[in-house]
Amino acid sequence: MSDPKIEGYTFKPGFKGMAQDTGSDQTMFKGVHWGKAMMWIFLLSDTFIFSCFLISYMKGRGSTLIDWPNPSEVFGLHVFGVEVPLLLIAIMTFVLITSSGTMALAVKYGYEKNRKMCGWLILATAVGGLIFVGMQAFEWSKLIHEGVRPWENPFGAPQFGSFFFMITGFHGTHVSIGVIFLFIYAYKTFKGHYDEGKRGWFTTMKGDYVEVEILGLYWHFVDLVWVFIFAFFYLW
Amino acid sequence: MSDTKKQEQASTHKIGIYLWIWGLLFVLSFFSYMVDWYQFQGMLRWSLILIFMFLKAGLIMAFFMHLFWERYALVNVLLWPMTAIACFIFLMVAEFEYTVFTRIFYFVVGG
Asked: What is the pTM of this model?
């Protein structure tokens, strides 16, 4: 989409372009920033990891003869004397979608070389992610106080705890890592590293706004995984 | 000068498309929360959850992750491996049904 042009090479759209891309020598994804291609490959492998977690959860939940805890009640909150089902999870979902939207806009403004807007939107995304992690920490401590452990829980099938901590913990780790990088990237954007082409800390790669897009891919993926966790773990 | 500016603008997308997708994601999330709120049960619940889930995932991948505009080579590299996951799900469904069957069988008949 935003890939730079290569001299003497014109990219054809559609299946013709695909044949041209895969069938020619030396490199695939010609003109795609290597960081972006590698981020996609990483996300593909991450997809398999999360799929394995969710599939093992399906297998565990499907093969137990003890009733599974009702997530609607387990994750319910008591607010102003009313029991609201799944309230915290719903708020977390909306927070994560909000941060995903601000990230998409940050990528857009990055490509327009709008440094300030891009920086502020990355910062907003980071804050959204931080709120999400905070609420997840609250949720974990609440459940641990109620006696949920990886090997037992007061609500039903004992496997519930291990799947819950494993899946949401792994997702939360992803969010936390994302938040750290978002703060770093917000700093780099405000400092103008992407305008000047300043080299990064761990790489000799010249700074460019494509890095914002790469981080955006990661952040949207985190949101994408949450969509599946929300559907299968909390709603099912 | 005006030519290069035009080209730069052509490489990004209008803000409207992002706002639309953003709004749709909110609406779909709200709907999937409503599935739990009204306590739909059985096939209706599962089909609604899956429909909203796939719509949300599709919107995020197509527009926020730009796959809709990406080259086919990348899209195909990303989406074909998903068939392996689908196979794995299929295998594990067969597996857990067999486990449940043997558990019930031995609880009733005895070892």
From this structure: 0.90
